Amino acid sequence: AATLECPVIFFCRNNGYAISTPTNEQYRGDGIAARGPGYGMMSIRVDGNDVFAVYNATKEARRRATAENQPFLIEAMTYRIGHHSTSDDSSAYRSVDEVNYWDKQDHPISRLRQHMVSRGWWDEEQEKAWRKQSRKRVMEAFEQAERRLKPSPDLMFTDVYHEVPPHLHRQREDMWRHVKQHREQYPLEQYDK
Amino acid sequence: MAAAARFLLKSAASSKASINNITKGVRSGLGLTLLRLSPKCDPHARTQKRHAAHFTFQPDPTPTEYGQTQKMNLFQSITSALDNTLAKDPTAVIFGEDVAFGGVFRCTVGLRDKYGQDRIFNTPLCEQGIVGFGIGIAVTGATAIAEIQFADYIYPAFDQIVNEAAKYRYRSGNLFDCGSLTIRAPWGCVGHGSLYHSQSPEAFFAHCPGVKIVIPRSPVQAKGLLLSCIEDKNPCIFFEPKILYRAAVEQVPVEPYYIPLSQAEVLQEGSDVTLVAWGTQVHVMREVANMAQEKLGVSCELIDLQTILPWDTDTVCKSVAKTGRLLVSHEAPVTGGFAAEISSTVQEECFLNLEAPIARVCGYDTPFPHIFEPFYIPDKWKCFEAVKKMINY
């Protein structure tokens, strides 16, 4: 991107962890933003939990990238409050106190809400109503999605390539021939025809 | 609805106040509140169930020749092998992503506390670096045990493995080598792993002279084979079937023991069909052998290949010379999969013995799918049909 002078924004969300590995075991340099200059790339580090800071940095990066045909690197600093995944229990490698600090003192949504409240754009009542409505919408979307059937197993063979080559046509036929012969062994009722 | 509850639990973790409108729940350490399911949700909706495993793990009889045994699952048998190694080899170190806290599959739990941070440590998220670093340690003569978090992630290290590790001895005319390097990686389908947590990449490396590739079917096999890989004076790749980490439980010897590499094991003798597999698929094939006996009166000889490279051609060819029929099965895609190599060699050696074309029951030539896994994997029904076809040829 640098040598070819491309209008690209490289956006790095630095949340402090890769599963159990904290950043000080990941690198010893000054994070990601400090690498940009090594590539001859304009770089900025921004408070990732400040929605306006991130917006402003990205807006300016976009303006300059397209105006000047050069890439920009944005490193947004934040903290991963949740576990890495549903298979992870992060209490195995970090303290609850550490997590609570970020959850309570430096949370992007809370900070935005407090700002909006202080400007008179939001209040407790609207908060309650919005949460209730949001929860309802999400639950409804879940229920609706879960009622839907899974896609047809035909689609297992598409999008491997732009076109479906002959050997995949044959494998698909083999699959259906086999599945039809052993219907009871396959959860066909969960899938679209 | 269970999926919905889990999702909202995670988002609730970021803002406790979001729980206000939810009826009573239980608070845990991180302020999570368990969501009470709405009466409309059916927790047993058929779309919710995770399918049961496609095989039943069959433990082997407790080994008696290696001393005292202890009940262990697969990840515990790996920990035991690593523990034995760190205890008796002061140069041994274990490294990789997230190994310090015990690893994403718990294979290294307790080792850092026991042996210290200089012997078991995290690396940055860089597979090329993990293997490159491991080669460097091994070249100095120390024992390097590198972990790649999922076999699916091994490709950034491919150049280091193929162009550096595999050729180190050859290109230096045996002046130097990285034989004390062992690379471990979780391998194979797991029910929900999809494209990047299910792969079986052994075929990519089978094409690379200079490395050894080993895949165990059980805890007892895993510990003995892993210890052999670590002792072996060649860089070894050890793939661990992740679906067996908890599901496979056996009595495993506590002390070190060694199962030889490049020696396939005949698990069950038979006269009509030779079945060859490795890792998880061995257990699928065990069931296929039983089905063949019960439904067709067909006697199957079951072989666990164990070492993919260099592979035990003698045992397999000797078996096929006897039975005249061969079925090879693996999860990896059929085209260019390791069954193709076995098939080619066997037809060279046993051409006149063959009663039927060699059958390969493998994954289709697509990326490992997510939602289509039950249709993709070479399950016992597909294998059984292949046996039937060969018998009736």
Q: Give the rounded overall mean pLDDT of chain A.
A: 97
Q: Biggest β-sheet of chain A, characterized?
A: 3 strands, parallel
Shape of chain B: globular
Helix content of chain A: 40-55%
Report on the structure:
The complex is a heterodimer of chains A (193) and B (393). Chain A is an alpha/beta fold and 193 residues long. Chain A contains five helices and five strands. Chain A has a three-stranded parallel sheet with strand order 1-5-4, covered by helices on one side. In chain A, β4, α1 and β5 form a beta-alpha-beta unit. Chain A is extended and about 65 Å long. The relative contact order of chain A is 0.10. Chain B is an alpha/beta fold and 393 residues long. In chain B, 34% of the residues lie in helices and 17% in strands. Chain B contains 14 helices and 14 strands. In chain B, α4 packs parallel to α5. The longest helix of chain B is centred in the C-terminal third of the chain and has 16 residues. Chain B is globular, with a radius of gyration of 23 Å. The N and C termini of chain B lie far apart (49 Å). At the A-B interface, α2, α4 and α5 of A face α1, α13 and α14 of B. Chain A: InterPro entries: Alpha-ketoacid_DH_E1_comp, DH_E1, THDP-binding. Chain A: Its cofactor is thiamine diphosphate.
Itemize the secondary structure elements and their pairings.
The complex is a heterodimer of chains A (193) and B (393).
Chain A lengths: L8 E6 L2 E2 L2 E2 L19 E6 L3 H18 L3 E6 L18 H10 L2 H11 L5 H24 L18 H16 L12
Parallel strand pairs in A: 1-5, 4-5
Antiparallel strand pairs in A: 2-3
Chain B lengths: L1 H11 L56 E5 H15 L4 E4 L14 H5 L4 E3 L4 H13 L4 E4 L10 H8 L2 H4 L9 E7 L14 H5 L5 E3 L4 H13 L4 E6 L2 H4 L1 E5 L11 E4 L4 E5 L3 H16 L3 E5 L2 E3 L3 H11 L2 E8 L4 H13 L8 E5 L9 H4 L3 H12 L2
Parallel strand pairs in B: 2-3, 2-4, 4-5, 5-7, 6-7, 10-11, 10-13, 13-14
Antiparallel strand pairs in B: 1-8, 6-12, 9-11
Helix pairs in contact in B: 2-8, 4-5, 10-14, 11-12
